[in-house]
Design brief:
Mean pLDDT: 93
Low-confidence stretches: none
Helix content: 10-25%
Order of helices and strands: EEEEEHEHH
CATH superfamily: Endonuclease/exonuclease/phosphatase
Radius of gyration: 16 Å
Largest sheet: 4 strands, mixed
């Protein structure tokens, strides 16, 4: 965070103990522009509400979810940050499914007019040919790959 300079905040917790130990999957935001109303972390596992390692994962993995309000316009956004396991194929597939359920739950519980955008970012350790990726961008999932939506000549 120090490298970002002043004016940045973040939400997130350590994956090992739900506090400070282990890697974070933080959501960084400009504190002069956005207010974080609420955030929560989930472990990418069969027991998402407590520190745990899921399926065939080598390490505990988490997703950080926050609801942010734009201070000037009142526009809302649900922002998610994650880091999928680098070894566990089943863990990546199940993590994708769990994240889709969490995203749908947050979008429904925090329904507003207009509805809040849901933005998911992170290291998915996946390729477009992997089932984890395919399930996240499948028709009806509510998600899309921003890279695929932008024509190649307009990408930066």
């Amino acid at each position: 965070q120090a490298g970002l300079g002043e004016g940045w905040g973040y939400v997130g917790i350590g994956r090992d103990d739900g506090d400070r130990l282990g890697e974070l999957s933080p959501v960084f935001y400009r504190v002069d522009t956005w207010k974080c109303e609420v955030f929560k972390n989930y472990w990418l596992s069969e027991t998402p509400d407590r520190p745990s390692k899921g399926w065939d994962a080598a390490l505990p993995r988490i997703v950080t979810v926050g609801e942010f309000v734009h201070k000037r316009t009142g526009q809302r956004a649900v922002v998610m940050s994650t880091h999928f396991d680098h070894l566990g194929v089943v863990a990546r597939e199940q993590s994708a499914k769990l994240i889709l359920r969490i995203a749908a739950q947050w979008a429904e519980e925090r329904a507003s007019s207009p509805p809040a955008a849901v933005i998911l970012g992170g290291d998915f350790n996946s390729n477009p040919s992997d089932n984890a990726y395919k399930s996240m961008v499948a028709k009806g999932s509510g998600m899309a790959d921003a890279h695929a939506l932008v024509p190649a000549e307009k990408r930066l």
